[in-house]
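Re: weekly structure request thread

Next one in the queue (556 aa):
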Amino acid sequence: MNQFNEFLLLLDSNLSGSWWFPILLVGTGIFFTIYLGFPQFRFFSKAWKIVSGKNTKADAEGETTAFEALTTAMSGAVGTGNIGGVALAIWTGGPAAIFWMWITAIFGMTTKFVEVTMGHKYRTKLEDGSISGGPMYYIEHALNMKWAGILFAFLMMITAIGSGNMPQINNIALVMNTEFAVPKLFTGLFLGILLWFIIIGGIKRIASVASKIIPIMGLIYFGGALFILIENYQNIIPSFNAIFAQVFTGSAAVGGFLGASFAMSLKYGVARGLYSNEAGQGSSPIAHASSKNTSIDQGVVSILEPFIDTIVVCSVTALVILSSGVWTEKFDTTFSKTDMVILEGIYSDQENIDGTYKHPEHMEQLTKYVQSIDSDVSEFTGPINIENGKLINSDITILHSRSIAENVVVKSADNKNLYTGTLNVIKGKVLEPVLVEGRSLVSSAELTAKAFSQGALGEYGGKLVAIALLLFAFSTAITWCYYGDRSTAYIFGEKGVFWYRNFYVLCFILAAVIDTTIVWNIAYVVVALVSIPNLIALFVLRKEMKNLTNEFINQN
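Done, posted below.
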């Protein structure tokens, strides 16, 4: 499993983690923003009017209203990325990562406008009478590149599982286990069966579910977050300062947080921004293609997606995490083996009364290590003696969740007994199947739950996050199955959809018990892969989009 995770990290370092992917993603948004005359600002108010249904004709071809199409697309976007993804961005890239999420969203509004317009314009009616659209259709019909359309559709089938499916149930299972002690496998099985019954109803049933879940749960989640922000009002301005102060320098080490370079803040901010609002990914055009609106009208409606998803919901989550201070605190947690490494020597992050580190040289070297910069830190290789769950070796340091672990206890794999014996370690990784617990930083949805649990809400805050994540992430998994089965129908016809849906549900159940770190690394890779052909196609179609935009301006 460690080798597989290392392979994923290698792929990610050459895709979303490379210098060229943020340039391609954000650069496409910047180009179209200038080329089309800043449509995200010019058409913003118009988008609200269209989504209200004022421009929709009752007899127009399509299966959903503009509002249903928008909420369906948003249900695919508003999910784990807004709750766990924001926390993950802060955990890896520091507060400065939120700034780059905002930048991605602002220019992503234009990218979304372009891809949804094109996806709707080149949509097709299938043999069963259903509407199907998206990048594969404009790649085929506008660019006359059937093979590239098939490639995109195939990548979307994989992305639906790796991004829209696995991270959702993995985070749901994690939080349900943490907050309600529900076994992860039970969560996966129960929701997997429910998922199957919903997706067999097609886009109409999916749109119906999404149009009810998203508005209601959005208000509940926003209300809980607002309550916490009011309670922590004195920390809101410092939180904004933390976001902006180190945008171009990276986030310095503070508390248990070991710091993040500029490259990490940029990488994870852009990656989380893309994962959150899906701009440029080519997924939401598939949902919008079912709308009864005109192509350009539906494209205008889609501008609202990155705004609501990232600028509003993600920002609220980020401010709750930052204002509560939990992102620098250690909590009792079960360690992820892929995110745990054993180092040679003793390192300390203890602080003086004034908040400075007692051993700043330790923090400097560890910060370099977690940022993959040359350092004096060495990974431990050799045996470790354990007696009644306690480490006997005194010359090692355990890092977990990018922080120095404390109060470490080793248990048997079944979590029934304290472990006694020897653990073999190679390059910092434990080979034996044991369970390790202790205090460290936490990430993903667990970090957001900790933030909501601070103050007056107490344990109910964490439960609110659990319920919100359950509904948001589950609706995301539903929508992404639709993206996958439309892509399947494009390649194999409707006969292939049945088999894809069943495989999708199987992966959904299995992902409930897979290591969280591996799941997120899979998501990083597949999201980048599917975005590349879509962004290239949009640039090629720039003149056609320019003409459609000018016609819309003249008509309004």
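The chain has two domains: 2-326+454-555, 340-442. The domain at 2-326+454-555 is CATH 1.20.1740 (Amino acid/polyamine transporter I).
Next request, please.
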